[in-house]
Amino acid sequence: MKRKLKFLVKQSLAKKMNTKWFKVANILIAICLIGLMNIDRIITAFGGDFEEKREVIVLDETGSYDLFAHSFNTIAESLGEMKNYEVKQTNESLETLKNDLKKEDEKTIIVIHSDRENYLSSEVISFDAVDTITTQLIQTVLNQVKSSMVLTTSGLSETEIASLTSPVSITKIVTNEDSQNTESKDMLSAGLILVFIVPFFFLITMLTQMIGAEINEEKSTRGMEIIISNVSPQTHFLSKIFSSTLFVVLQGALLLLYGVIAYILRVLIGATGVLSVSGSVANSVSEIFQMIKDTGVLALLLKGLPLILVLFIVSFLAYAILAGVLASMTTSIEDYQQLQTPLMIILLVGYYIAIMASSFDGALFVKIVSYIPLLSFLIAPVIYMLGQTTLIELGISALICVIFTIMFFRYGLRIYKVGILNYSSSKLWKKIVKSARQK
386, 295 in Cβ contact below 8 A? Predict the structure, then answer.
């Protein structure tokens, strides 16, 4: 049995991986990941320039340029957009400035007028339409300038004006020493969703579709009858589970490899001095790791990593068993896709609960769902690393998943034995129930 199982697994893996579509798809995925992570480098190579600054030329008729420039630079810096602007004052006439505007110039002319009714008015002139961020920035700065000028003429002292215009100081005090900072928690939750939920949701979907397509192909070509005459249904069933799970794990490893290559290329290209849109990726990664360290997630991850891996692998096997059982009872890929709908609903339920886990800190419902097989692999690791459950509770989720998968295989095999040679789609659910009851 072991030799036949090994042979079938090897053949199934070779069939999946030695195809042109697998190679083409992975090349395209690698190109897309590398391209997305280095999109600013690509744009720069084709003529884009992220280092070019937008000139903000101020024609001031009110004597408020210094105040405008200070406010503009302060707000732009707080938005992380300081590198995109350069504020200058000019004494040239408005007509001259308009005539000097060219299509290739990144210039915005701001004319500040005195206004009897509104105190200040302004004109914003550019060759092309000004983007929304720049428009809002200019609007905010002009409102601040107006407020400051009104206060200056109000008779208040400079100290009083500075006190009125300075931002309110907020000191955060959390009495629960074990409580995480809300902002860090939200960032951590978003990171966990990207790392644990999205990739595994994608891989599980690929796994279920792959098993269904392969089994239905063998049934539609009558190749199933030849295979079953040489190996037992149990061996065939196990080969489908193991080969598909191994393929998905390998595909996940390849995706991780592509991401690492994309990051390394970005770092190497970044060494040439090309400016990034979002700043230094290396610094961003360092900040993320520092946040993970500060919030204690790294220590939790290291402690729970063996259990998390068990939970993921066993969940892959459980979904492979479920997909194999459903596929065995159908006669075409169309029928299987109809049966696949409840499976996709289960995945979506786990996906959305995992996303909302950080918003419902300590909710009993989320903890209960984290013990349910087929859902626990999406929810249990996330709430564990958010500090909502303990290592013991994570272990219980993994243990329940293992027991469920063993029992599910035992009863699923009964259905599979009957279903793989079944070519009738009538009374499908009745056949499934009847097969499960047989010994």
Answer: no
Rounded to an integer, what distance in angstroms lies between the CA atom of residue 29 and that of residue 137? 38
Question: Measured between alpha carbons, how far is residue 396 from residues 110, 124, 134, 268, 433 in Å?
Answer: 64, 63, 53, 44, 29
How many CB atoms sit inside 10 A of residue 105's CB?
13
* Other C-beta atoms lying within 10 Å of the C-beta of residue 395: 17
Report pLDDT digits (tens) over 378-424.
Answer: 888 888 877 788 889 999 999 999 999 999 998 888 888 877 776 66
Q: How many angstroms separate the CA atoms of 144 and 75, rounded?
A: 11
Q: What is the pLDDT of residues 323-381, one digit of tens each?
A: 888 888 877 777 777 777 788 888 888 888 887 877 777 778 888 999 999 888 888 88
Strands 107-115 and 119-125: antiparallel
DSSP state at residue 194: I
Nearest to 374 by CA among 321, 434, 335, 430: 321
**Do 57 and 108 meet the contact criterion of CB atoms below 8 Å apart?**
yes
Helices (H), 329-390: 333-356, 364-369, 376-385
Distance separating alpha carbons of residues 393 and 387, to the nearest angstrom? 11
Buried b (16+ CB within 10 A) or exposed e, 160-193: ebeeeeeeeeeeeeeeeeeebeeeebebbbeebb
Burial of 399 (0-12, 13-18, 19+ CB in 10 A): middle
Q: Please give the single-letter amino acid code of residue 279.
A: G
